[in-house]
Amino acid sequence: MNLDYLFDGAHWDFASGSIPQLIVSHLWYVLLALALGTVIALPVGLYIGHTGRGSFIAINAGNAGRSLPTLGLLMLMVTLLGLGLLPVLIALTVLVIPPILTSAYAGLRTLDPGVVDAARGVGMRPMQVLFRVELPMALPVLMSGFRSAALQVVATATVAAAVGLGGLGRLLIDGLAVNDYSRVLAGAIVVAVLAVLLDLVLAFAQRWIVSPGLRASK
Amino acid sequence: MITFDDVVKVYPGGSTAVDHVSLELPTGKMTVLVGPSGCGKTTSLRMINRMISPTSGRVLIDGKDIAGQDEALLRRGIGYVIQSAGLFPHRTVLDNVATVPVLLGKTRREARTAALSLLERVGLSAEFAKRYPAQLSGGQQQRVGVARALAADPPIMLMDEPFSAVDPVVREGLHREFLRLQQDLGKTIAMVTHDIDEAIKLGDVVAIFRQGGKLAQVGTPQELLTAPADEFVAEFVGRDRGIRSLSFDSAAALPVADLPGTLALDEAGRPTGWLMESGQVLPTGGTFTAADSLRLVTDLAISSPVGIAVRVNEEGKADGVVRHHDLADYLAARRAS
């Protein structure tokens, strides 16, 4: 086992199957799954957190979602839907939903009730309370849920290769198939580095969107 | 005027929070709702801006039933101050104060300009504008809370234990400033407190609630102190209510005697102390003017080394004295009349 594959310049030219190209397709799956998962989980989590109705859904969906094996779910989806991007996207989205749903719910539920009471009391309508007060205040918790979803999906998006798609999983699966452990190692390292970089980007984004007033209190 | 017309609030589960309360809160005055915990005072307050709806009965503002009004619009027209201040931690002090004007459609810029002058009004300098609530002390947060409630210049203010989260010294200062502010503004205020001393000090009208959400007595602080309706009220207003009721009586009508020779004066005629037989000069311990209360005069007479309170005019010149037995006669005659 060695780093030859990773440091071979030929593997870094932008061509089909090259590392940069695999990174791009990998990130593409990650972003699609995060976007889709957020679109589904965020409104549901905010609704449950804002109204307090259906909190058992937030808690149980979170737990159930976490215990589903993504690879198994992917195989099931492929059996049902055939090969393609859709089954991969579904499997990854199911992985992304629980942390976002739970953090949105928890972010709102743990707010100081006095502040929410004041928001209503000064005459904000329910949606104004949600978007002008509850959501901005819940952002630190929400962002930590989103970051953990992002980390999980970066690591797990390698399963796309198992059903014939691209992404950094190609390096792992193809490498294993031909006993090229240098290639497997390259795949593992790039995935890890990608995960760390993505988390850094999100940490930076968090600093930018979370009010300094919320940091001052911590 | 805010009117409670036979208002009842029963919570799901059957506990009665407010039990057939009828009450009028006069325009431009401060009405304090006071009572032990669980007496329905906060529930009553929160029915004025429809944070809670009555089970039966009506709440009217200037004769109009609020039940049919749009909740959010109603609340924007009523200042709201709560115990923990309830400031929005993610917004600067200035933007907290600008909240309601922005909701009412003012531009952020206009609202901020107005907010800045309001901050000054509640005793915070402009340097606080850009800070966040977490960077303020409890007393400062409460001032911002009051400024936020005042920002849209609402005719009515609701205050739910606004001063109870700050320490006694700060509270004293806030009381003074608040009274001064109210003197300028003349808002119709409903305030909730569990502290009867605060109620008596701040209220034009005090409504005492008892357990079970019933109104025990409504009256001016003086009425409550001098003529409590029953044992509960008498107990609640406290044992030294006789002395405290003197706070509401001016010393203007109190007859004074001529200055005795034992009162030492400086060249300007200001009292400097009492000449004792031993040749010692003891401090007077304070003086009063005609504008002060009988309570102060009583206190001075009792604490004076010779049992005499000294009155001074505006220049600080001594112009009369009250001996404590004369004071006792005066109080007895006043009681009898």
UniProtKB/TrEMBL annotation, chain A:
Pfam families: BPD_transp_1. Its main location: membrane. Residues 23-202 form the ABC transmembrane type-1 domain. It is found in: Cell membrane; Membrane. Keywords: Membrane, Transmembrane, Transmembrane helix, Transport. PANTHER family: GLYCINE BETAINE/L-PROLINE TRANSPORT SYSTEM PERMEASE PROTEIN PROW, POSSIBLE OSMOPROTECTANT (GLYCINE BETAINE_CARNITINE_CHOLINE_L-PROLINE) TRANSPORT INTEGRAL MEMBRANE PROTEIN ABC TRANSPORTER PROZ. Belongs to the binding-protein-dependent transport system permease family. This is ABC transporter permease subunit. It comes from Paractinoplanes lichenicola.
UniProtKB/TrEMBL annotation, chain B:
PROSITE patterns: ABC_TRANSPORTER_1 (PS00211), ABC_TRANSPORTER_2 (PS50893). Keywords: ATP-binding, Nucleotide-binding, Transport. InterPro entries: AAA+_ATPase, ABC_transporter-like_ATP-bd, ABC_transporter-like_CS, P-loop_NTPase. GO terms for molecular function: ATP binding. The keyword Oxidoreductase does not apply. Residues 2-237 form the ABC transporter domain. The keyword ATP-binding applies. It comes from the Bacteria. Signal peptide: none annotated. Belongs to the ABC transporter superfamily. This is ATP-binding cassette domain-containing protein. It comes from Paractinoplanes lichenicola. The lineage of its organism: Bacteria, Bacillati, Actinomycetota, Actinomycetes, Micromonosporales.
